[in-house]
Design goal:
Blueprint lengths: L6 E5 L3 E6 L5 H10 L10 E4 L2 E7 L2 E5 L3 H12 L4 E5 L4 E7 L3 H6 L16 E6 L2 E7 L5 E6 L3 H12 L6
Antiparallel strand pairs: 1-7, 2-5, 2-6, 3-4, 4-5, 7-10, 8-9, 9-10
Helix pairs in contact: 1-2
Length: about 170
């Protein structure tokens, strides 16, 4: 049996947002030690550690995947000390879609204006963008797959758009 040209599914993933106010820089190294990965400070990059991914969301703001909010908050408190920081668990407010297959990037390009070619948007990169007018956080995964996060309030609409966009790759 051959792999489908495009496949996608909503998935469950713990998602927290970590924000720092006026960090002095040493907090980044401390965060890296606490989370067991090189802390991403370069725009649109992802760092992976054992059981955790951290995505650069903006200056002094990151998405932390896969860990409970209490653990993210405890690690951040140890790393940041007196630096004002905030952790918000947004898992219940987000739906995460994983999209794969040889034509996945081509399909998403129908509604996304960033260049999704693997040479440009490679594993280890992320971006905030629009998918057919819906705000998403997009992550390039190993093996050519993509993961994106969208608000739960529009997840059904996004799923319907994915179904429609995938028709030509499914022979329907």
């Amino acid at each position: 049996m051959t792999e489908p040209l495009v496949h996608f599914r909503p998935t469950t993933l713990r998602v927290c947002i970590l924000r720092l106010k006026f960090p002095e820089g040493h907090e980044y190294a401390a965060l890296g030690r606490e989370f067991g990965l090189p802390w991403p400070v370069t725009p649109n990059t992802v760092a992976k550690g054992e059981g955790v991914h951290v995505l650069w969301l903006g200056p002094n703001e990151w998405v932390v995947e896969q860990l409970p909010a209490a653990e993210v908050a405890a690690r951040a408190a140890r790393a940041c000390g007196a630096t004002l920081h905030h952790v918000a668990d947004v898992s219940e407010g987000r739906v995460v879609f994983e999209v794969g297959g040889p034509k996945a990037r081509e399909m998403l390009a129908k509604g996304c204006s960033i260049d999704l070619h693997p040479r440009v948007f490679a594993p280890g990169q992320c971006a905030q963008t629009l998918l057919q007018h819906a705000n998403i956080m997009l992550e390039s995964l190993d093996g050519g797959a993509l993961r994106f996060y969208t608000d739960r309030s529009i997840a059904e609409w996004v799923a319907a758009w994915l179904e429609d966009a995938a028709l030509e790759y499914r022979g329907g």
